[in-house]
């Protein structure tokens, strides 16, 4: 399956190297080395103050940072963060090729100030390991090394078992998964992931759990083991506190599973969720395209025709051309056109793993054709249906029309002795289901509101201040009331004098 | 592998390959063999095991699957199939491919079709290579059947029943015909007001009138023997009812939620 978000990073290094040169000449707000260092400090603060949000802040910059690191940046960063003969430092540096001169210019300045620093938290080491891992994964020659590092890191991470490491651990698991996938050994990693997933769920390590469930689903789906993937989904609960990106992935995988199982409605909801939760189209075009491919197919399978504007979207236009052709064929209800489009784009559909789904569309094409006929004719002979829809025989046509009537595609009946189909009028579509749909939408809005209320941050003790202010206000009010009373009394007092 | 396992295995091979196969003997031998496999840790292999042993284990299970089909024991076929899955998916790289793999997979697909388990059918299909689906006769057959069933081309299904790629497939034909007859019947109920008996028979692939009449009685159709027609009961237009309970509940829920917001 194409994970273009990653691919992009893979394809880029060559270009990146050139770009980096250019970038370095430009004044950059903060150098990658400095950024890594400040990130490590932030992680340290997060662990000591038990405030996970600092770690989250660090991880948010990960994607941007990943594109800017190279060997020397990492080396300099590690050199400056750890004191001279630190065991961890040697360990980490061993993963990087020894550069010509490891003494960067700015590093000298920093080491003097940092040598006195107290022992760093293991989370910082993990963060650096993650960076090295991502860097190794980016180029093809170092992928083997990445796999080794991934294994070592995963072991170490599990041995440490620190709750403050959860957020970083989730990212590391993702990198481990990627390392295995690039090495083509994804199925070998499954037992490890399953064990880790169990541990994570026992420890309520939501982030790692979310990441691991997605890794497992990905692994199952790559090998087309939809049955196992479905069982995994039914046996686990996806942690509701997972990040948006993980949710988007999860919904995407779930959508694919449901589509295979013919549960198109659920597949549609899941894919829609995946699209909504996905990062903007421009930043992660690969995911956006992959989800939309399935989305279009599922919508067709449900009997809907996707919006035309979708195919004019800048990111999607090129990727979805083949699907656009299919949509056109289904819309016109022409089996011949459908078959020719299918064979023309077969290679692409197979690559996208949508081929089997698209084959299922055949019956939809027929149904659309029959519906068009039933709308335009009030009575049509089975023979004409047969010719118009390119069916093999009249008998087939009779069965097919019968099935369409039973499935509620068209309203009508067959008059057997005369050999024609009589079409009835369309049913009035306004019924209790309208209120149901309306109710669903209201429920969605209310849920959205509740979710956003829950998502707000309430700083500790902040309400005290408010309380104090309220208290003060009440106090003032009382005084005012008193004054007014006094004033009134005064007035009263004054009154008689007048 | 234990010695007695080996002798049993050879006996099973002889009993299965003799013509006609000695089903009784196979059925007697299989439980013993399965116990042997469990003792040798081969029924659900884990870790590194001898490849030769594995293919023997697979062979035994495959014979088991065939024997259960021939003796019409479907639940037992299901069990053998799920045990075989380990060999077909997890050891597909290390083991030499078995020539019985696709026939058995095809049988499994047909079995899902006859039970109308279309979702499972597609899930199982998804794990196969697209080339196999398009080329392999054992897989192509159920795939085509499914497509025709979904389209409603029942006459194609009917005519394809004789083209089964192997003997075992024919066992499922009867139950498959039962499935499609019911499908056709439910289509007829909504699509026709009445049908001549003769035409009803051809549509339902019955050869004699008496078969149609018994079938019609089962489905509760009115048969008019003098006119020679079948009349289908019209379902009355469903009365539209206002779902009071639900509307009240929903309104109360909205009120509560709004109260929380304001």
UniProtKB/TrEMBL annotation, chain A:
Gene3D superfamilies: 1.25.40.570. The keyword 4Fe-4S does not apply. InterPro entries: CSN3, PCI_dom, PSMD3_C, TPR_PSMD3_N, WH_DNA-bd_sf. Residues 248-428 form the PCI domain. GO terms for molecular function: enzyme regulator activity. Belongs to the proteasome subunit S3 family. This is PCI domain-containing protein.
UniProtKB/TrEMBL annotation, chain B:
Keywords: Proteasome. The keyword Cell cycle does not apply. The keyword Repressor does not apply. GO terms for cellular component: cytosol; nucleus; proteasome regulatory particle, lid subcomplex. One of its GO terms (biological process) is proteasome-mediated ubiquitin-dependent protein catabolic process. It comes from the Eukaryota. Belongs to the proteasome subunit S14 family. This is PCI domain-containing protein. Residues 75-262 form the PCI domain.
